[in-house]
Amino acid sequence: ALTVRFLTRRFIGEYGDMEFIYSHNLTVDGREILFHIWDVPNSQEQAEEGSSEEKRIQWADSFVLVYSICDRASFNILPLKIQFIKATKEGQSQEKVPIVIVGNKRDLHHQRVVSSEEGRLLALSLDCGFYEVS
User: Residue 14 is part of which domain span?
Assistant: First the structure.
C-alpha cells in the first residue's frame, strides 16, 4: 500500500500478497532520479533466507522495511532481516547499506502494540533511519 501511495498518490485499502517491480521517475534536489522498486510482501514462505531473498538484496541499492504498529510479529522479524541484509550487502564492500525502518498504520493508534520509542530504539541500535507513517 505504501508503494502504491508513493507512485500514484492514491490510497488502496485492499491489496494482494504479490511481488511487483515498479519503475518511477522523480525529481530530487533538481536531479531526475529513476526508482526501481521491488515490492516484496512478507510471508511465512519467505521467512527462511534463501537464494531468492539474497538475489533481491544483491539487486537493491537501499532498503525500506515496513512493519505494522498493530502487529508485533511484523516488528519482531526486523532485526534478523536487517542483519541478513547487512551481511549480504556489506560483506562485499566497505560501504554502509542505506536501510530505513518504517512503522505503518500510525493512524490506528488505538490498536498500537509497538510503541514509537521501540521503533526508534531498534533503528538506533541497528544504525537505520526511522519513520512512522499512516
Answer: 1-41
DSSP per-residue letters across 54-70: HHHHHH-S-EEEEEETT
- 56 and 121 share one domain: yes
Q: What does the pLDDT look like over 31-42, one tens digit per residue?
A: 998 888 888 776
Cα dist. 105→10, 11, 62, 90 in Å?
16, 12, 22, 31
65/105 same-domain check: yes
Q: How far apart are CA 81 and CA 63, in angstroms?
A: 11
Which DSSP string corresponds to 122-133? HHHHTT-EEEE-
From CA 41, how far away is CA 21, in angstroms rounded? Answer: 12
pLDDT digits (tens, 9 = 90+) for 4-30: 777 887 877 666 677 778 888 889 899
81 and 115 together in one domain: yes
Spatial CA neighbour of 58 closest among 24, 97, 17, 2: 97
Rounded to 5°, angle at Cα 64 from 102 and 123:
55
* C-alpha grid cell, residue 96: 554502509
Residue 85 shares a structural domain with residue 114: yes
